Task: inverse folding
C-alpha cells in the first residue's frame, strides 16, 4: 500500500517541482550562454540591459523558489492533504497511519535531494570552463592526498556521514513539522497557532532539555571529554579525522533518535487523537 | 459474518465542555436502508466521523462487522462525507483510478457506467466541475464499491431533484443483502420512500430507532410528519 500512496504523492507533488526545475535549468543555461558570448559587456542598447538584469534575477529567484517550494510542500502536503478536507479520503483508505506519514515524508525527502542535485547542476552549468575543470581535478587530487594520509576508510566514512547527516537532517525537520501540525490539529479553534506554539516549544524548550540532559547527566565533569571523543591521537591527521567522524556519528545518532521520537508521537496522535475539521 | 453490521456501545464525545454524543447505543442489521435523521447540530456527522475513524470517541466501543475501527473496518465501510474531499488537480479518471487501486471491492466498470449516465466526462479536471457534479462524482465512487456498510452523510444536499432520484435509485439498486446503508439527512421527505428504518437523533441522544412501517402504523403519519412533530420548534 505504501507504494500506491507514494505513486499518488509523487503525482501530486511533481506538478509543482518539475516546472520549477525547468525554470531553474533554463534560466541557468541562458545565463551561461549570455556570459559565454560576453553579451552583457557588448553595447547592445536597452535590450541587453534589460536581459542583463532579468536573467540573473530570474535565476536567483528560481534558486530561492526551489527551496521555498520544498519547505512549503513539506508543510502543505501534510496540512492540507492529511489534516484538511482531503484527509476525509486519506484517513478512510484502508492503510495504516505509518504508511500515510511515510508516504509524505519519503516524497518530500526525494524532492529535497533532487532539488539540491538540480541546484548543483545549475551551478556547474554556470561556472563550467577550463578553470572549473582544473578546480575539480585539484579537489579530487586533494581528496586522494587526504586518503593517503588519513586512510581511505576514514575519508570515505567522513563523506558517508556527511551525506547521512544531510539526509537525516531533512527527515528530522520533516517529522518535527509533522508533529507540530499534528499537535495543532488537536485544537478545535486555533490549529495554526497551536502548531506554531508546538514548533517554538519543541525547538526551544525540548532542545534545551535535551541539551541539559546531555551536558549534565551524560557528560558531567567526570566524563569530559565525552566518551566517544576519548582515545584519539589529536596530534595526527588520522586521529583528528577519526575524532571528527566519531563526533559526527554522535550527532547523527541524536538526530535519528529525535526524528524517531517525532515520528512515533505523530503516529500516536493521528491514530488515537485524530480530530479532522 | 456477524449478525449486526454496526454495533455502538456507550459512545460519547465532547467538544471541549459541549457534549455532542451522549451514551449512544446502536445496533444495525444487515440488508437495511437506515435514515439517520436529526436537526442541524444533533450529532449525526460526529457519529459518522467516529465510525469512520476520523474522530476518536471519548468513551464507548464500536464494531463494524465485528471489527474494531482500523484498517479492517475501513476496507468494508464506504463513506460519503458531508463535504468534498477531492483534490482539485486530479482528473475524474485519476480519482477513479485511485479508488480502483486502494479498494479491492471497487468496480471500475460500474463507476464508468454511472459517470456516463450522469454526463460527467472522465477527462475533466475536478477543479472545473460544479459543486453538484463533484458531489455526484463522490457518490458514484462510494456506490461503486461492494462494501458492507455505506455511510452517506447528506448525500443529496447539493444536487438537483432529477439527480436526487437517480442517486436514490442507485443506492437502492447497488447494495446487497449483506450490506446496510445509513443515510444521514434532514431532507426526510426526499429519502423517506427508500428507508427501511429511521433513527431520530437529537442533542447527541438517540430518541427513536424503529422500522419505518412501525412509525407509520403507530403514529399514523409519515416519517417526515412524525419528525416534524418530535422536533417541533
Result:
Amino acid at each position: 500500500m505504501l507504494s500506491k500512496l507514494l505513486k499518488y504523492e509523487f503525482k501530486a507533488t511533481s506538478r509543482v517541482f518539475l516546472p520549477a526545475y525547468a525554470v531553474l535549468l533554463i534560466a541557468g543555461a541562458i545565463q551561461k550562454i549570455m556570459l559565454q558570448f560576453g553579451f552583457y559587456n557588448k553595447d547592445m542598447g536597452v535590450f541587453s540591459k534589460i536581459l542583463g538584469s532579468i536573467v540573473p534575477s530570474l535565476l536567483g529567484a528560481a534558486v530561492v523558489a526551489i527551496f521555498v517550494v520544498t519547505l512549503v510542500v513539506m508543510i502543505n502536503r501534510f496540512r492540507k492533504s492529511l489534516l484538511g478536507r482531503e484527509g476525509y479520503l486519506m484517513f478512510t483508505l484502508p492503510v495504516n497511519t505509518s504508511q500515510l506519514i511515510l508516504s509524505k515524508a519519503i516524497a518530500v525527502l526525494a524532492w529535497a535531494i533532487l532539488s539540491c542535485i538540480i541546484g548543483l547542476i545549475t551551478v556547474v552549468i554556470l561556472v563550467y570552463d577550463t578553470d572549473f575543470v582544473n578546480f575539480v581535478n585539484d579537489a579530487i587530487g586533494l581528496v586522494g592526498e587526504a586518503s593517503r594520509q588519513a586512510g581511505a576508510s576514514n575519508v570515505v566514512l567522513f563523506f558517508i556521514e556527511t551525506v547521512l547527516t544531510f539526509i537525516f537532517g531533512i527527515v528530522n525537520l520533516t517529522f518535527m513539522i509533522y508533529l507540530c501540525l499534528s499537535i495543532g490539529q488537536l485544537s478545535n479553534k486555533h490549529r495554526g497557532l497551536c502548531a506554531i506554539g508546538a514548533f517554538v516549544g519543541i525547538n526551544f524548550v525540548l532542545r534545551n532539555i535535551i541539551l541539559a540532559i546531555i551536558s549534565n547527566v551524560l557528560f558531567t565533569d567526570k566524563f569530559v571529554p565525552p566518551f566517544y571523543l576519548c582515545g584519539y591521537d589529536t596530534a595526527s591527521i588520522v586521529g583528528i579525522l577519526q575524532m571528527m567522524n566519531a563526533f559526527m556519528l554522535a550527532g547523527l545518532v541524536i538526530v535519528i533518535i529525535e526524528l524517531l521520537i517525532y515520528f512515533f508521537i505523530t503516529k500516536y496522535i493521528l491514530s488515537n487523537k485524530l480530530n479532522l475539521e | 459474518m456477524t449478525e449486526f453490521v454496526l454495533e455502538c456501545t456507550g459512545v460519547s464525545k465532547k467538544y471541549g465542555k459541549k457534549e455532542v454524543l451522549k451514551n449512544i447505543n446502536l445496533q444495525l442489521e444487515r440488508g437495511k436502508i437506515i435514515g439517520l435523521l436529526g436537526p442541524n447540530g444533533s450529532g449525526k456527522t460526529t457519529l459518522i466521523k467516529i465510525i469512520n475513524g476520523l474522530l476518536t470517541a471519548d468513551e464507548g466501543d464500536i464494531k463494524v462487522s465485528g471489527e474494531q475501527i482500523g484498517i479492517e473496518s475501513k476496507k468494508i465501510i464506504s463513506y460519503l462525507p458531508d463535504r468534498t474531499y477531492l483534490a482539485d488537480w486530479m482528473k475524474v479518471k485519476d480519482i477513479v483510478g485511485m479508488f480502483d487501486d486502494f479498494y479491492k471491492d471497487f468496480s471500475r466498470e460500474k463507476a464508468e457506467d454511472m459517470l456516463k449516465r450522469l454526463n460527467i466526462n472522465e477527462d475533466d479536471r475536478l477543479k472545473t466541475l460544479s459543486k453538484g457534479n463533484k458531489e455526484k462524482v463522490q457518490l458514484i465512487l462510494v456506490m461503486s464499491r461492494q462494501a458492507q456498510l455505506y455511510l452517506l452523510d447528506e448525500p443529496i444536499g447539493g444536487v438537483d431533484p432529477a439527480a436526487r432520484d437517480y442517486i436514490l435509485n442507485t443506492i437502492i439498486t447497488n447494495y446487497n443483502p449483506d450490506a446496510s446503508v445509513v443515510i444521514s439527512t434532514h431532507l426526510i421527505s426526499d429519502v423517506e420512500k427508500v428507508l427501511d428504518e429511521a433513527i431520530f437523533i437529537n442533542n447527541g441522544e438517540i430518541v427513536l430507532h424503529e422500522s419505518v412501517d412501525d412509525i407509520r402504523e403507530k403514529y399514523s403519519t409519515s416519517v417526515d410528519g412524525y419528525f416534524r412533530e418530535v422536533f417541533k420548534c
Notes: The interface with chain A takes residues 15-16, 49, 52-56, 71-72, 74-75, 77, 79, 81, 83-87, 89, 94, 98, 101-103 of chain B (CB under 8 Å). The longest strand of chain B covers residues 4-15. Chain B has a mean pLDDT of 89.
